[in-house]
Design brief:
Elements: E1 3-4, E2 14-25, E3 28-33, E4 35-36, E5 50-53, E6 57-67, E7 70-79, E8 86-91, H1 93-116, E9 121-126, E10 132-136, H2 144-156, E11 161-166, H3 168-174, E12 188-193, E13 199-200, E14 214-223, E15 226-234, H4 236-243, H5 248-268, H6 273-281, H7 286-292, H8 299-328, H9 353-366, E16 371-373, E17 378-380, H10 381-384, E18 403-405, H11 411-417, E19 420-422, H12 428-435, E20 441-450, E21 461-471, H13 476-491, E22 497-504, E23 507-516, E24 539-548, H14 550-555, E25 564-571, H15 572-580, H16 595-598
Parallel strand pairs: 1-4, 16-20
Antiparallel strand pairs: 2-3, 2-8, 3-7, 5-6, 5-8, 6-7, 9-10, 10-15, 11-12, 12-13, 14-15, 17-19, 18-19, 20-21, 21-25, 22-23, 23-24, 24-25
Bound molecules: 3,4-dihydroxyphenylalanine (DAH).
């Protein structure tokens, strides 16, 4: 039986002991020792690594497991180690210390979760690559912020974490909730955080909660009757370093400048290709150094920056190729023409961001049975306004600032249909869809819209997507459910919506739909209590919607006493910008066709 030193002292990094058994397994060895500091994988904590050194050989420990009451160290060995050898064992301490912190973070987080939701039953913890705790029960997604505040308050309080070896009797007496299985092959232990009730635990733990560092809850996933709370940790230093990130726009600016400098050097150089490459792309070059600095960009923005880095490098590579070709083909170097030089790769494009967004929106709605339809984008006044309960002189129409199209008035149509307009919203599709005469309707109409406006948050041409569901017994509940589904799919599982009463002519009741802010998740405050800079109030305004007005249903030939429905309309560009958390200084950039801007998406 191996004595488990980590149970009583998680900070013991090195010991001297004796090999009790050594067996060869293929090219690897399995060693057992009289006592060990190596933690065997278990209880959600990964195993330790490190070295075991004897007089005639050194083992490098790759993995550690419990086998009955023995701890088996799976190693590769240089030289020889045999039973009876005296050895010195040393842990890979940075790795172990991170495991300890993650493991204690799990316990601290659990205290926070349980204090808010005492009915949850813990099922398992994972404190390795993807740290998370799973419970039976469910947690509202919106509570991420509260859980994080509670957990980090425990970290800030720097409470002692103490452990005691106990008998089964004592454990049963002192622990509130017994875990489903207790280990039979090792001593039982309980740990206590501050003055909270103790919990059974056999892993390694830091001495004080402050050592854990800042805890971030990275997601709450409710599936069936269980819920998983995923988390990560940061030390204070890491958190502070993270706050000194360089903004991605500034980084891209530096890259573009480095690209221009590199091209100038290339233009003036007659060096052979390889020398030139090292000068402008090598690790010591301006671009090489900048590439390394990508680590000082927020992880969330790194992919975007990475794409630009690759493009800049590719373009510099091309410039080098072109330069070496033109140098080589000069008459004074006729012999230097190299026919094996590979061809130049033409730049590749990608779909415009709005096209990408439309495809994604279409796909999300398709999954709940909404079919994308198309309706005219140049349409009669009747469909754009009048049929939607907005007669010509209605003041509400001013908000739409519509473009009118001059046309030959055809008498027959003109009576009812009126003028021709560039559609100012996608709502013109409502009555047109009803006129198809098929029920139920589940449409998503995505189209260009036009309004007489151009400023930093408006373009005269933009896109909306209009959803409409008509059937018997459709209620506000359905509207809310569909919005909530969409928002979770498009923006992420921790986002929710709220409906705020509003007025539209064509729906009754009408709502404006807000989405909780992606930064502060609806609280309006950051972790340190400062007001959230993105939203101020916790919510961002997104869309309009409501229950279709009976008059509109009648105009589409549908009997409002038998059928009801909801409709909503959102801006595609706005939705897309909110998704990336991208705050554009000027939304007109999307349509300015500046490749440097578009390439970033
Ligand atoms: N058409 C409205 C707009 O452009 C948005 C809207 C509001 C659409 C309510 C709807 C709705 O379908 O029910 O601002």
């Amino acid at each position: 039986m191996t004595e488990l030193l980590f149970l009583t002292d998680s900070y013991k990094k090195e010991i001297s002991t004796r090999v009790t058994n050594a067996e060869q397994k293929g090219s690897a060895w399995e060693l057992t020792l009289a006592e060990t500091v190596f933690y065997p994988q278990g209880g959600g904590q990964p195993s330790d690594r490190g070295t075991i050194k004897g007089a005639k050989g050194t083992a490098s420990v790759k993995h550690v497991r419990m086998d009955g009451a023995e701890v088996v160290h799976e190693c590769t060995v240089e030289g020889t180690l045999v039973p009876g050898d005296r050895v010195t064992c040393s842990l890979d301490w940075p790795l172990r210390y991170r495991h300890m912190r993650l493991h204690s973070a799990g316990h601290v987080l659990h205290e926070a979760v349980i204090s808010l939701y005492p009915d949850l039953v813990p099922l398992k913890g994972e404190h390795g690559d993807k740290p998370a705790i799973t419970y039976r029960g469910s947690i509202p997604i919106g509570s991420i912020h509260d859980i994080m505040m509670k957990a980090n308050a425990l970290v800030a309080a720097d409470l002692p974490i103490t452990s005691e070896l106990v008998s089964l009797d004592e454990l049963q007496k002192r622990v509130a909730v017994l875990p489903p299985r207790l280990p039979k092959n090792k001593p039982l232990r309980i740990i206590t955080i501050g003055d909270r009730p103790p919990t059974p635990d056999g892993g390694t733990q830091v001495a004080k909660t402050g050592e854990v560092g800042e805890i971030t809850v990275s997601g709450i996933t409710n599936t069936g009757d269980t819920v998983t709370v995923a988390y990560t940790i940061n030390t204070r230093e890491e958190t502070e370093a993270a706050e000194e990130f360089i903004p991605v726009s500034q980084y891209i600016g530096m890259l573009l400048e480095a690209q221009a400098n590199a091209k100038r050097v290339i233009e003036e150089s007659t060096d052979p290709r390889e020398i030139l490459r090292i000068a402008v792309l090598g690790p010591k070059s301006e671009l090489g150094k900048l590439t390394k600095r990508i680590r000082s960009i927020k992880p969330a923005d790194r992919q975007q920056a990475g794409t630009v880095v690759n493009d800049v490098k590719a373009s510099v590579e091309r410039a080098i190729e072109e330069r070496s070709l033109s140098v080589a083909s000069r008459p004074e170097h006729p012999e230097a023409f190299d026919p094996t030089v590979p061809g130049l790769r033409p730049p590749e494009g990608h779909l415009h961001i709005v096209t990408q967004a439309i495809a994604e929106i279409t796909e999300i709605f398709a999954r709940i049975g909404f079919t994308r339809v198309r309706h005219p984008e140049v349409d009669w006044d009747w469909y754009a306004f009048e049929s939607l309960n907005m007669p010509k002189n209605h003041p509400a129409r001013d908000e739409w600032e519509t473009f009118f199209v001059e046309h030959q008035k055809s008498k027959s149509k003109n009576q009812k249909f009126g003028q021709i307009v560039l559609t100012p919203h996608t709502s013109n599709g409502q009555v047109r869809e009803m006129e198809k005469g098929k029920l139920p309707i589940r449409m998503i109409n995505i189209a260009t819209c036009y309004r007489r406006q151009s400023d930093i948050s408006h373009t005269p041409m933009f896109h909306q997507f209009e959803g409409m569901y008509i059937d018997t017994n459709v209620s506000i509940g359905h509207l809310k459910g569909v919005f909530d589904y969409f928002v979770k799919q498009f923006f992420g599982p921790d986002r929710t919506i709220r409906l705020r009463p509003f007025h539209f002519q064509f729906t009754e009741p009408s709502f404006e739909v807000d989405i909780n802010c992606g930064i502060c998740l609806g609280s309006g405050k950051l972790a340190d209590g400062a007001p959230c800079r993105l939203c101020k109030s916790g919510w961002l305004e997104m869309a309009g919607g409501g229950m279709i007005h009976p008059t509109v249903l009648k105009n589409g030939g549908i009997d409002p006493s038998r059928y009801s429905g909801f409709a909503f309309g959102w801006g595609v560009e706005r939705a897309y910008m909110m998704k990336g958390g991208t705050k554009l200084d000027d939304i007109r950039l999307i349509y300015s066709n500046d490749i440097r801007f578009l390439e970033q998406f």
